[in-house]
């Protein structure tokens, strides 16, 4: 395409249309300003100083990945209500990524799975941890006996520390397979 062909594709707004759009935008802005009057109030000095009275600060670690950035969680009546970055943390040095900034929402999510579940006859059913672990162990034992140890694949996680990765690898070797990899390679 030549330069003239691109000029033909540009949207054209005349002076009169521009002034009409500017007038509509100004009117809607003024309407919103009048509609919001008295809806909010300024926070008191006490609310700014302590927005959640009776809460406690708990130093914790972000679990989104294996870096382990520091988070200061503010907990009130057993509920995580707010979070701050741990400024004195030796790993994150007062910062964290978007996943860490959203950690409070992941913890408080209504769709977060909090107990083992299984789908039976099209319906989700809660299991106890003992029943869930027994089912997993039985399925792993059956797969090992019927199809051999290489029928299983062990997948590591970025959330594992060195010690956990060591034991995870040892467990795969005990199971009899070298089928082990890391989730970052998928």
Report the sheet with the most strands, covering strand number, pairing sense and barrel closure: 3 strands, antiparallel
| Rg computed from alpha carbons, rounded to a whole number of angstroms | 28 Å
What fraction of residues sit in β-strands? 15-25%
Which stretches of 5+ consecutive residues score pLDDT under 50?
none
Shape: extended
Q: How many H/I helical runs?
A: 7
Secondary-structure blueprint:
Layout: H1 3-9, H2 15-35, H3 45-49, E1 56-61, E2 70-76, E3 79-85, H4 98-101, H5 103-108, E4 117-120, E5 123-126, H6 129-147, E6 154-156, H7 162-175, E7 180-182
Parallel strand pairs: 6-7
Antiparallel strand pairs: 1-2, 2-3, 4-5
Compact overview of the structure:
The chain has 186 residues and is an alpha+beta fold.
Describe this structure in words.
The relative contact order is 0.07. The chain has 7 helices and 7 strands; from the N terminus they run αααβββααββαβαβ. It is extended. The mean pLDDT is 85. It is α+β, with helices and mostly antiparallel strands. Among the domains are: 52-108, N-terminal domain of TfIIb (Single Sheet), CATH 2.20.25.90; 117-185, Rossmann fold, CATH 3.40.50.
């Amino acid at each position: 395409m030549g330069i003239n062909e691109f000029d033909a594709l540009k949207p054209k707004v005349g002076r009169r249309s521009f002034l009409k759009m500017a007038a509509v935008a100004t009117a809607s802005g003024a309407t919103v300003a009048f509609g919001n009057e008295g809806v909010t109030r300024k926070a008191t000095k006490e609310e700014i100083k302590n927005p959640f009275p009776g809460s406690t600060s708990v130093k914790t670690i972000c679990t989104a990945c294996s870096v382990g950035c520091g988070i200061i969680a503010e907990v009130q009546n057993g509920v995580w209500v707010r979070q701050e970055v741990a400024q004195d943390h030796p790993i994150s040095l007062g910062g964290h990524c978007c996943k860490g900034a959203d950690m409070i929402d992941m913890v408080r999510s209504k769709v977060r799975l909090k107990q083992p579940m299984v789908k039976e006859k099209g319906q989700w059913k809660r299991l106890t941890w003992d029943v869930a672990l027994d089912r997993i162990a039985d399925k792993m034992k059956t797969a090992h006996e019927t199809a051999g140890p290489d029928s299983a694949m062990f997948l590591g996680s970025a959330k594992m520390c060195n010690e956990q990765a060591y034991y995870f690898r040892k467990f795969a070797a005990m199971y009899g397979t070298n089928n082990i990899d890391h989730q970052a390679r998928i």
